[in-house]
Sequence to fold (204 residues):
Amino acid sequence: MLAAFCLLLIAALVFNRDFWRDLQQKAVPWPVAGASVCVLALLWQTDATVLDALSIHFLALTILVLLFGLRLSCLLFVLVMALQWLMTTLPLDQLLWNLVFGWLVLALNYAVYLLCFHYLQRQLFIYLFVGAFLNSALGLVVFMLLQTWLQADQYSSHQLYEGYLIFIPLAALPEALLNGMAMTLLVIYKPEWVYTFYQRIYLS
Fold:
């Protein structure tokens, strides 16, 4: 059932005419997209397992969605999970849940970006601090809560709190720093690669 749901979403992305039309407007070279997928897959490999089936690692999904937009980032994340399937021994159902949770975080990050764009001042500081820094910390918190929900039948609430949830503040700050610093470098040196960054608006 979960696999069918994932396949339907992937098909909806691939066979959407608007998706391919928007793809032509993106200025990111395909080698950069491929490198982003490989780097993201490696980041997801460098995890710290605190409980069985529960680990802590960098997500870097905020960079992905700000760099490529929502639809392309969701498709690229499928490739990330495919590489995870090749490089790890995780069961397929766990990888599919990670795929769904990653999609939810991407959608959340993009929604926060849109709220910032429409309701906050369009300044570089707002884009980097709220749209990248705080947004990525929120995404990590949501991802870890979703992972906790998935394993709620395997552990007691006390075990989940003492062995996993207690690390959320410790993991959120490095995640925010990674995404914030990466987006700062990108908008300074390669702003034309960032799909969600408009120099005419943010630097005026």
Observations:
- The chain has a mean pLDDT of 86.
- The two ends are 49 Å apart (CA to CA).
- The CA atoms of residues 57 and 190 lie 27 Å apart.
